[in-house]
């Protein structure tokens, strides 16, 4: 038989054992029976009104304006999925600029309520305290997410009343997962102990759980992913106005390719319109836009989007609800001659190598202030920086507008199967049942130090409770400077690393990121992270001097580099509009001579480590010498060495 609840206690405060409450208190018990653990009620307290109103908090708290303070109360059996939903919901809200905090039953009982047991009276006091704390969170403008078994209906009603009396919204969510499912999960081994009689009064076994009669929502986690279950709570909060509908996840990114049904008509229209030629790099940017890497951009930037990018590294969403990170301008340049010829037309055809590839709608022309653009994006306008050189040689006008891209862009170089769009990558991660995706951006060959970093990241994610973290190994596939290793060689080298088992194929997706490389340091690394976020990654590994290069004037700075090696990672952690992505700092790896392998650098043993620079690696490869054992997978090294040796024969 279930143990039934025998009595209810009044709303009370714990008696101060040190007797220093500096005021009067009334005991509700016979004083002959009162002990140090006696519960008492203070009688000489008066509520103090805040000077800051909820409206003011709503205007200034978080990135998403408006007062959204409320409490979401998740109730259900142990193992039902309450905490999983709570933390998933918390992450969702915080990533969208809505302050939220998860108050978990276990966490509360190790701190605030560590002096309470599981008697009916202690259970009631546990919930009363949590209800009061949640009310304070909600009143401050935070969404308080409480995950507590809270088996008694009277206790939950008490928590609701605490909020009602304060004119705060309270949402009771019944996580209605069947007992047999909860028991089969038994993550903490509690059901087993309860069945064995080790734990007394365990809810669902020897203690009754009183199901909510009229909860705001019922969620069943059996047969559903945590994300799917959480989405039901998100939908409720959207309907209640807590979450603006403009912030909801886009399940499928809108692509800019035209539908097959109108493709022929678009091609005929393109042939009838005035046209401008575009370069290979501009075609790469067209692919980036068409596939959704730069979502929510709908085409080459108009002047307002361009200005926001240059000055804020972000753009406002259409609804103006919040800013999306967009740190690099994606623009199309035209000559003065073409600008004068095309100004005022309703649409322009973009041609690549004489073939129509897209139509630019409602074009908007604006002057290309190159020095301003370059100084803001690169921190220099030095003409010997290779991407800057291209910009300086481009047209004196920029033209923006929405795009209709005629067909998917293919390069026919034997690598198109690796050019997965953001939507295709999202589908791939879903098929793999990934619950975490960590992206690694690279434009260089992989050595065992990189592999160590990726292996260690996977280990950390598993330790944090993720079941299937997946690596997005994502080499940059657009334009790079002449002395970088070409994409086909890098892809063959990456495949050799996977073939060797250094990285597991079972939880790795090797794909090509179509963006050109700009070597714009901290500004560009934000773009690299944002694009991977659009593809479904929620963790991003950033290393030393990302997107950096030597300064064209080597005497300009003491280290000879264009950017400080630490700034990319530091800026990325502070960047606006990347809230749904966690930045993982790059741990420095070097060759550990004591064990003949790559290992994380330890300053205390610095004499035992060797840093093998890119210059030294290239020299070894060109001369046919091998690197130290354990530096790089041998077959991967062979591919790299053959490439460099082929250069010396030219």
Automatic annotation (TrEMBL):
Gene3D superfamilies named among the record's database cross-references: HUPs, P-loop containing nucleotide triphosphate hydrolases, Sulfate adenylyltransferase
Pathway: Sulfur metabolism; sulfate assimilation
Keyword Cytoplasm: no
Domain APS kinase per the UniProt entry, residue ranges: 68-220
Species annotation: Musca domestica (House fly)
Domain Sulphate adenylyltransferase catalytic: 416-643
Keywords assigned: ATP-binding, Kinase, Nucleotide-binding, Nucleotidyltransferase, Transferase
Pfam families for this protein: APS_kinase, ATP-sulfurylase, PUA_2
Membrane-crossing segments per the record: none
Domain of life: Eukaryota
Protein name, per record: Bifunctional 3'-phosphoadenosine 5'-phosphosulfate synthase isoform X1
Domain ATP-sulfurylase PUA-like: 251-408
Family stated for the protein in its record: In the C-terminal section; belongs to the sulfate adenylyltransferase family.
InterPro entries hit by this protein: APS, APS_kinase_dom, ATP-Sase_PUA-like_dom, P-loop_NTPase, PUA-like_sf, Rossmann-like_a/b/a_fold, Sulfurylase_cat_dom, Sulphate_adenylyltransferase
């Amino acid at each position: 038989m279930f143990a039934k609840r025998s009595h209810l206690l009044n709303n009370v405060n714990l008696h101060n054992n040190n007797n220093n409450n500096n005021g009067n208190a009334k005991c509700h018990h016979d004083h002959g029976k009162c002990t140090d653990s006696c519960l008492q009620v203070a009688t000489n307290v008066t509520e103090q009104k805040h000077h800051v109103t909820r409206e003011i908090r709503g205007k200034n708290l978080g990135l998403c304006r408006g007062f959204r303070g409320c409490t979401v109360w998740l109730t259900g059996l142990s193992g039902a999925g309450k905490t999983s939903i709570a933390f998933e919901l918390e992450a969702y809200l915080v990533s969208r600029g809505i302050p939220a905090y998860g108050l978990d039953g276990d966490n509360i009982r190790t701190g605030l309520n560590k002096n309470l047991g599981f008697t009916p009276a202690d259970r009631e006091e546990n919930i009363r305290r949590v209800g009061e704390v949640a009310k304070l969170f909600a009143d401050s403008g935070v969404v308080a997410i409480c995950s507590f078994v809270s088996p008694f209906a009277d206790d939950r009603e008490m928590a609701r009343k605490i909020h009602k009396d304060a004119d705060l919204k309270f949402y009771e969510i019944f996580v209605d997962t069947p007992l047999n499912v909860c028991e089969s999960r038994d993550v903490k081994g509690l059901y087993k102990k309860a069945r064995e009689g080790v734990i007394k009064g365990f809810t669902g076994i020897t203690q009754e759980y009183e199901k909510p009669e009229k909860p705001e929502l019922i969620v069943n986690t059996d047969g559903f992913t945590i994300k799917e279950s959480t989405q039901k709570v998100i939908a409720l909060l959207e309907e209640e106005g807590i979450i603006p509908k403009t912030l909801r996840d886009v399940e499928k990114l809108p692509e800019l390719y035209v539908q097959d049904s109108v493709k022929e008509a678009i091609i005929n229209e393109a042939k009838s319109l005035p046209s401008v030629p575009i370069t290979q790099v501009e075609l790469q940017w067209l692919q980036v836009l068409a596939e959704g890497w730069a979502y929510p951009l709908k085409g080459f930037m108009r002047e307002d989007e361009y200005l926001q990018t240059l000055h804020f590294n972000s753009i406002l969403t259409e609804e103006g609800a919040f800013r999306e990170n967009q740190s690099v301008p994606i623009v199309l340049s035209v000559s003065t001659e073409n600008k004068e010829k095309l100004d005022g037309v309703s649409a322009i055809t973009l041609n690549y190598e004489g073939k129509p590839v897209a139509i630019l709608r409602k074009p908007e022309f604006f002057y290309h202030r190159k020095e301003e653009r370059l100084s803001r994006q690169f921190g220099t306008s030095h003409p010997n920086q290779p991407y800057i050189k291209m910009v300086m040689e481009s047209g004196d006008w920029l033209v923006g507008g929405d795009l209709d891209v005629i067909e998917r862009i293919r390069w026919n170089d034997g690598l198109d199967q690796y050019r997965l769009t953001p939507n295709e990558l999202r589908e791939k991660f879903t098929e793999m049942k990934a619950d975490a995706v960590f992206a690694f951006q690279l434009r260089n060959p992989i050595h065992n130090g990189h592999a160590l970093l990726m292996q260690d990241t996977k280990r950390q994610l598993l330790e944090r409770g993720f079941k299937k973290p997946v690596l997005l190994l994502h080499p940059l596939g657009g334009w790079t400077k002449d002395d970088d290793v070409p994409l086909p060689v890098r892809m063959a080298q990456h495949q050799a690393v996977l073939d060797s088992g250094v990285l597991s194929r079972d939880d790795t997706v090797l794909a090509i990121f179509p963006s050109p490389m700009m070597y714009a340091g901290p500004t560009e690394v934000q773009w690299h992270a944002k694009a991977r976020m659009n593809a479904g990654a929620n963790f991003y590994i950033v290393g030393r001097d990302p997107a950096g290069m030597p300064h064209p004037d080597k005497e300009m700075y003491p280290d000879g580099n264009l950017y400080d090696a630490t700034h990319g990672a530091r800026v990325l952690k502070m960047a606006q509009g990347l809230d749904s992505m966690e930045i993982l700092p790059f741990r420095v790896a070097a060759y550990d001579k004591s064990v003949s392998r790559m290992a994380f650098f330890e300053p205390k043993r610095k004499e035992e480590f060797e840093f093998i620079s890119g210059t030294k690696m290239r020299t070894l490869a060109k001369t046919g010498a091998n690197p130290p054992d354990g530096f790089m997978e041998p077959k991967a090294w062979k591919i790299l060495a053959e490439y460099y040796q082929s250069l010396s024969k030219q």
